[in-house]
Amino acid sequence: QVQLVESGGGLVQAGGSLRLSCAASGSISSINAMGWYRQAPGKQRELVATSTRGGNTNYADSVKGRFTISIDNAKNTVYLQMNSLKSEDTAVYYCNAEALYRSTWLKVNYWGQGTQVTVSS
After folding, report:
1. Would strands 31-39 and 91-101 be described as parallel, antiparallel, or unpaired?
2. What does the alpha-carbon distance between residue 63 and residue 2 come to, in Å, rounded to a whole number?
3. What are the φ and ψ backbone dihedral angles of 47, each rounded to 5 degrees?
4. Residue 84 to residues 27, 63, 101: CA-CA distances in angstroms?
5. Comparing C-alpha atoms, which of 107, 121, 5, 23 is closest to residue 72?
6. Residue 54 CB coordination number (10 Å)
7. Parallel/antiparallel/unpaired status of strands 91-101 and 77-82
8. For residues 104 and 73, what is the distance between their CA atoms, to the nearest angstrom?
9. How far apart, in whole angstroms, are the C-alpha atoms of residue 83 and residue 104?
10. Can you tell me the mean pLDDT for 88-112?
11. What pLDDT, in 10s, does the model give residues 30-81?
12. Per-residue confidence (pLDDT) for residue 3, from 0 to 100
């Protein structure tokens, strides 16, 4: 099992910045990758950014050049630095950890509780 605790959401004006953090605990060694997803009201959850432990990253086109994901492997924490925020970035942001249990080759996705990001225009 992996537990994820997020922090860093809040209210910010358009053009501003926020940094989200997500600390993982539990079966840390099973985690292959971590990432951030978001869900706006009335919309489906969508990928924002992901990173492997080795630093390979992937971003949604809508956030490229504005958001940066990073993993501190020593702290088992993933960060999302969000700059030049827009009103359309308003959503609940969820931390995700992808774990692979090698004893069974079972892949499991874990989710945080979500943190609200609101960007006022």
Report:
1. antiparallel
2. 27
3. -70, 140
4. 35, 10, 38
5. 23
6. 10
7. unpaired
8. 24
9. 40
10. 94
11. 999 999 999 999 999 999 999 998 899 999 999 999 999 999 989 999 999 9
12. 96
